[in-house]
Write a structure and sequence with these properties.
Elements (H helix, E strand, L loop, with lengths): L4 H16 L12 H12 L1 E2 L22 E3 L6 E5 L9 E3 L12 E5 L10 E3 L4 E6 L21 E3 L22 E3 L11 H5 L7 E3 L22 E3 L22 E3 L6 E2 L13 E3 L5 E5 L12 E3 L4 E4 L13 E3 L4 E4 L13 E3 L4 E2 L1 E3 L12 E5 L3 E3 L13 E5 L17 E5 L8 H8 L4 E3 L13 E2 L3 E3 L6 E2 L3 E2 L5 E3 L4 E4 L2 H4 L11 E3 L4 E5 L12 E3 L4 E4 L13 E3 L4 E4 L4 H4 L5 E3 L4 E5 L12 E3 L4 E5 L12 E3 L4 E4 L25 E5 L2 E5 L16 E3 L4 E5 L12 E3 L4 E4 L13 E3 L4 E4 L13 E3 L4 E5 L4 H4 L11 E3 L39 H7 L7 E3 L5 H6 L1 H13 L3
Parallel strand pairs: 3-6, 5-7, 6-8, 8-9, 9-10, 10-11, 11-12, 12-14, 13-15, 14-16, 15-17, 16-18, 17-19, 18-20, 19-21, 20-23, 22-24, 23-25, 25-26, 26-27, 27-29, 28-31, 29-32, 30-33, 32-34, 33-35, 34-36, 35-37, 36-38, 37-39, 38-40, 39-41, 40-42, 41-43, 42-44, 43-45, 44-48, 45-49, 48-50, 49-51, ...
Antiparallel strand pairs: 1-5, 2-3, 4-46, 46-47, 47-57
Helix pairs in contact: 8-10
The structure holds 2-acetamido-2-deoxy-beta-D-glucopyranose (NAG) (9 copies).
């Protein structure tokens, strides 16, 4: 290596520079050769798809101090900084799971910490790249001998955050970086490192520690103190800590100013030791859900406090009045707790306050201008409690100009000061009986808003002359009537579900606009819209979600609708459409949810083209579809919900259902998110989903269901059905099936509901059925089953209604015992319909956000959610966490 060309070049440059030294201030000391070799070595392990490091080569014209991302000391020529974060690209509309941050241009491969041999390196930032691993073993775990010889590391700043695939299983090497002041390993997997605190608390100069979203589990709940001596910022948000708030945190000998423990599973009360940290400016405990007890009075003594976020917890009792003493407060967030009592007027004195969020509590009493009197810097304000009375002076002009506000349960009149808010961009008013009159004035005002959500109010005007101009307009569950409004090209999401709108779709769809429309989601379900689908869909190619369910629409699907090639979800259910639809799937190659249920569509489904379709839910119940169920349907490998009930289908159940791999567990790509499909639209998320009752399952609406009931399906049940081990619901009732239940039914361990009633099935009930431990609904009635019902807690927990109409069946819970002495069973045949469990037509305007609503216990909350890039990875890792994250972000725009 000694006589390498780089050496020669280095000497030449150095000579050249020395000669010119006196003449030119422009001339810099060339980079140190040792440093250059370290950099080139590092580059060997890196995969660099977009040539970010293309300047890193010895034969470049550039000195290594001028390579991309490098900075040197201009006197010694030693490398001091390496600054190579990556910026991910985002399309404006994408399915969150399918299209993660596009990091294809970022650095990947191995990130070798041999870089720390750069003796004068003080700053290292590789954040948000796509590295797959970190190599740190060369550092040596005990003596740090991998570091620069002689003296300890000069590294002060280390940021490797959001390289989501990196896993670090021990952090002992960190303690070698004794000059470290800033450490960010956010988004890196650290769940295997159980002694993280040991390593990081040894760093004597550490000012900021960011270990958010690392899957950390151990917070050392019983440790009395930690050895941090300089720490000011501690970010441990979005980890897996489960305990009370740990003692050591409030017993630090340093002046900590920022603590973020949001989105963990901390529980219990706020400890009085919190008072020890008088230096605290920012205390964030949001979305732990189980922090509880009163908000203590003494919080009013933390005089430096600027930011207090206790949102999404279970705090109860009143808001302490002496919070009004915290004159430095900028943000006070108590959103979604169980706080009661009055809205203290003392808060109205916090003249620095910019953010005040009190919505989703149980406050009582009166709110008036006195509560907001001196809040001249207020920008975001939210308040929503069922028993709170709004009593604002109509003449009051507030000292603030809000950017976002959210009011709930307003009765009487809307506070007139709202209309003085000319900077307002985001407005939610929900669950309110207040009059929005005069509506002209209100719609005029709304034109300035980027986002509004006016859900579950009593707005009752005629919409036919209204022009909607906001990006996101939620007007569901009001009393709106008349024809459809017109849209400006600015509208991305429109929801008018559950109103009394009537007339045709054409005013909205066929009205010519100067510019191209940007509508992504159109929800007009549950109105009285009538007429045929107009042939104007070619102007709306940006649509990915269309829901016209529950209207009086009729006719065939027009040709222009097939131009909606971006469609992910189409609901035409509960209307009076008719005709054949064979090419629908073929034209909607991206479709994930198709709901045609409860119409008069007809034709043989064997004519449909199924190949290459990724559809997850096919809901076609209650139509006139006929013919056999074609074996090609088994090519739908992503299918999770197949509902063909109540049609005119005949022939056997195809014997290839096991090819629908999404219904078979242990498949390589188990889709964690099921049929809840989050779509990001300009950084807001809304969720596509089904209209189903079955979502009581708190965190998993991973619905796996097959319903072929009420057809003319014949022959035996193919064994392949019983290979669908993820199946939660199977309904084959009201057909003409024969044969027996195979013992393989015991494979369907996830089964919660099975209905085989009203067929011609026979034989004994297999013993294996008694092992289905989640079974909550069982209907075997009206068949020819015989013999004894297998014993075991499971099958006896149902009533005799599950078994009646099988004269030869005996044993508990039937009263007929299995000897030949017949007891007379007088039970009358049941009413026809025994299946009410997985009917997919149950309607709700909130269904798009239903999963979110359940996840955080806020059913009424909006379906649109703000989403930011930094939270993306949480999505990939934790379903629940994801929804928490995005719902918080959404609320943060109010
Ligand atoms: C070295 O860099 C510093 C900061 O960039 C600058 O202020 C200083 O003038 C430079 N010195 C020389 C000799 O160029
Ligand atoms: C190591 O640091 C000490 C003081 O901290 C200094 O005197 C010495 O010169 C340094 N040695 C090297 C090789 O940098
Ligand atoms: C704190 O430092 C002391 C002495 O160096 C050590 O014994 C103890 O284990 C350290 N505690 C933690 C939590 O690192
Ligand atoms: C706080 O730390 C000190 C040591 O610095 C320890 O003696 C004391 O017990 C700790 N206090 C609590 C409440 O744990
Ligand atoms: C704090 O607030 C309470 C109640 O609002 C008040 O009585 C008390 O004087 C205040 N203390 C200080 C130091 O301002
Ligand atoms: C709608 O608002 C009323 C109050 O006006 C409330 O009682 C009801 O629970 C709300 N409905 C939903 C679904 O949130
Ligand atoms: C609505 O705005 C238009 C134009 O800005 C204005 O002419 C009209 O008077 C306004 N209507 C009301 C009721 O404020
Ligand atoms: C769309 O919004 C922009 C500002 O966001 C506004 O200037 C423009 O007038 C709007 N377009 C229409 C047609 O209203
Ligand atoms: C089912 O999958 C197997 C291979 O996994 C394939 O050979 C067969 O053709 C498939 N059947 C159908 C009807 O798709």
């Amino acid at each position: 290596m000694d006589v390498s060309p780089s050496n020669t070049k280095f000497i030449l440059l150095w000579l050249l520079c020395s000669i010119m030294m006196f003449n030119s201030v422009m001339c810099k000391v060339p980079c140190n050769e040792k440093d250059m070799n370290i950099l080139l070595n590092f580059k060997n392990g890196v995969i660099d798809p977009s040539g970010m490091l293309s300047s890193w080569t010895w034969f470049t014209e550039l000195d290594c101090c001028e390579w991309t991302g490098i900075m040197c000391d201009n006197i010694t020529g030693r490398v001091t900084q390496l600054n190579l974060p990556c910026h991910a690209n985002h399309p404006s509309v994408f399915v969150v799971g399918d299209t993660p941050d596009d990091k294809s241009h970022c650095l990947t491969g191995e990130l070798s910490l041999s870089l720390l041999k750069l003796e004068f390196l003080s700053y290292l930032d590789f954040s948000n790249n796509n590295f797959k691993s970190v190599k740190y073993d060369s550092m040596g775990s005990q003596n740090c001998n991998g570091l620069s010889k002689g003296n300890s590391s000069k590294l002060q700043y280390l940021d490797l955050s959001y390289n989501y695939d990196i896993l670090i299983d021990n952090l002992r090497w960190i303690s070698c970086l004794s000059s470290l002041q800033y450490l960010n390993l956010g988004g890196i997997l650290l769940h295997k490192e159980i002694d993280w605190l040991q390593s990081v608390s040894k760093l004597p100069s550490l000012l900021e520690l960011h270990l958010q979203s690392c899957q950390l589990q151990n917070i050392y709940p019983s440790l009395q103190y930690a050895n941090f001596t300089s720490l000011q910022v501690l970010d441990l948000a979005e980890n897996d800590f489960i305990s009370e708030l740990p003692t050591w945190l409030f017993n630090l000998s340093c002046d900590i100013s920022h603590i973020d423990l949001s989105q963990n599973h901390f529980r219990g009360k706020l400890p009085t030791t919190l008072l020890n940290i008088r230096s605290i400016k920012s205390l964030l405990l949001s979305a732990n859900y189980n922090l509880q007890g009163p908000i203590p009075d003494w919080i009013g003594q933390l005089e430096q406090l600027q930011e207090l976020d206790l949102s999404y917890n279970s705090f109860s009792g009143p808001i302490p009045t002496n919070l009004g003493n915290l004159s430095s407060l900028i943000e006070l967030n108590f959103l979604s707790n169980h706080l009661n009592g009055k809205f203290p007027e003392s808060l109205g004195q916090l003249s620095n306050l910019e953010i005040l969020r009190l919505a989703e509590n149980s406050l009582t009493g009166i709110v008036s201008e006195k509560n907001l009197l001196s809040l001249s810097n207020l920008k975001h304000f939210s308040l929503s409690s069922p028993s709170l009375v709004y009593d604002f002076d109509p003449e009051w002009v507030p000292p603030f100009q809000l950017q976002g506000t959210w009011l709930g349960f307003v009765s009487g009149k809307l506070p007139s000061w709202l209309f003085t808010q000319s900077s307002l961009k985001t407005l939610t008013i929900e669950h309110s009986s207040a009059s929005f009159e005069p509506l002209d004035k209100f719609w005029n005002f709304s034109a300035q808003l980027d986002y509004f959500s006016l859900t579950n109010n009593t707005i009752n005007g005629d919409m036919s002359n209204v022009l909607i101009n906001s990006k996101f307009a939620w007007l569901n569950s009001n009393n709106l009537r008349g024809g459809l409004p017109q849209l400006s090209p600015n509208v991305s999401l429109l929801n008018l579900c559950n109103n009394s709108l009537s007339g045709p779709l054409s005013p909205l769809l066929c009205h010519k606009m100067k510019e191209k429309g940007n509508l992504v989601s159109l929800v007009l379900s549950m109105n009285n819209l009538s007429g045929e689908l107009p042939n104007c869909w070619m102007d709306w190619k940006s649509l990915i979600h269309v829901d016209l369910g529950g209207n009086k629409l009729t006719g065939k699907i027009p040709h222009s609708m097939t131009s909606l090639s971006n469609l992910l979800s189409l609901h035409l259910n509960v209307n009076m459409f008719f005709g054949e639809v064979p090419t629908l799937l073929e034209n909607f190659q991206n479709l994930l949810i198709l709901n045609l249920g409860e119409n008069n569509f007809s034709g043989a489904i064997s004519k449909w083209k199924w190949q290459g379709i990724k559809v997850k839910a096919l809901q076609m119940r209650s139509n006139q579809f006929s013919g056999n169920i074609p074996p090609q349907i088994c090519q739908l490998s992503s299918l999770m919900v197949l509902d063909l009930a109540n049609n005119k289908l005949s022939g056997p159940v195809p014997n290839c259902l096991h090819n629908m791999t999404a219904l078979v567990s242990d498949t390589a790509s188990v889709d964690k998110f099921g049929i809840r499909i989050p779509v990001s639209v300009n950084n807001f998320i809304f969720t596509l989903g089904l209209n189903i009752k079955g979502t009581e399952l708190p965190y998993s609406n991973l619905v796996h269901a097959i319903d072929l009931s009420s057809n003319n399906i014949s022959q035996t049940m193919p064994l392949e059905i019983f290979m669908l081990t993820r199946l939660q619901s199977l309904n084959l009732s009201h057909n003409r099936l024969v044969g027996s239940i195979p013992k393989d039914i015991g494979n369907l361990k996830q089964l919660e509901s099975i209905d085989l009633s009203n067929n011609r099935l026979s034989g004994e009930i297999p013993q294996s059925m008694s092992t289905l431990s989640f079974l909550a609904v069982l209907n075997l009635s009206f068949n020819n089953f015989m013999g004894k019902i297998p014993l075991g807690t499971q099958l006896q927990s149902f009533t005799n209604l599950s078994y009646i109409g099988n004269p030869q069946l005996c044993g508990p819970p039937l009263t007929r015992n299995c000897r030949h002495d017949e007891t007379t069973d007088n039970t009358k045949p049941m009413t026809e319909d025994g299946d009410d469990v997985d009917r997919f037509e149950v309607y709700s305007c909130f269904y798009m956000g239903l999963g979110i609503g359940f996840a955080v216990g806020l059913l009424g909350v909006l379906s649109v959610i703000y989403f930011n890039r930094a939270c993306n990875h949480a999505y990939f890792r934790f379903l629940d966490r994801f929804y928490v994250t995005i719902i918080q972000k959404w609320n943060s725009v109010y």
